[in-house]
Design goal:
Oligomer: single chain
Helix content: 10-25%
Distance between the termini: 38 Å
Structural class: alpha+beta
Number of helices: 4
Largest sheet: 5 strands, antiparallel
Strand content: 25-35%
């Protein structure tokens, strides 16, 4: 497997009191055929555009593409393991798919703090995924962040 499961010990925790606008985090993963097949098995989304090279060759993409939600799930990985990390609770996520991700692409997911509401413990993030320099996904996420005051 090209992307082993990280250990829980590697999960960071950034308290809302330590966050500032402009803080960011990122991770890169290769979304290979194994990842796509595993995602298809877990979700039941077996659309042949993701799994069948002959079928995909007849589409505008010309080859298999990664599920959009698999790509978007990398945003969740950054938020849940790096910033804010341990204790983060998703409230919302908007997503715009900008370009296809092809099976085998290395995808970088990036999040940047854009607003902090300390009273409500809400943090807003600009989110995006890149393949090389090309933005393939963008959006915005709102999370409840951990606080030292909450114990």
């Amino acid at each position: 497997m090209s992307n082993p499961i990280p250990s829980q010990e590697s999960v960071r925790q950034v308290f809302i009191e330590d966050m500032e606008e402009g803080m960011s985090a990122r991770l890169t993963r290769r979304l290979d055929e194994e990842a796509v097949r595993t995602f298809a098995a877990l979700t039941g989304d077996v659309n042949p555009v993701h799994l069948d090279a002959a079928y995909a060759a007849e589409t505008p993409f010309k080859r298999p593409i990664v599920h959009g939600m698999l790509t978007a799930s990398l945003i969740s990985a950054v938020l849940g393991t790096q910033l804010p990390g341990r204790g983060a609770i998703y409230v919302s996520q908007s997503i715009q798919f900008r370009a296809p991700v092809y099976v085998g692409d290395d995808v970088t997911a990036e999040v940047t703090v854009t607003a902090i509401d300390t009273r409500r413990r809400r943090v807003t993030f600009a989110t995006r995924c890149l393949v090389g320099d090309k933005e393939v996904l963008r959006g915005e996420a709102v999370l409840i962040a951990p606080s030292r005051a909450q114990g």
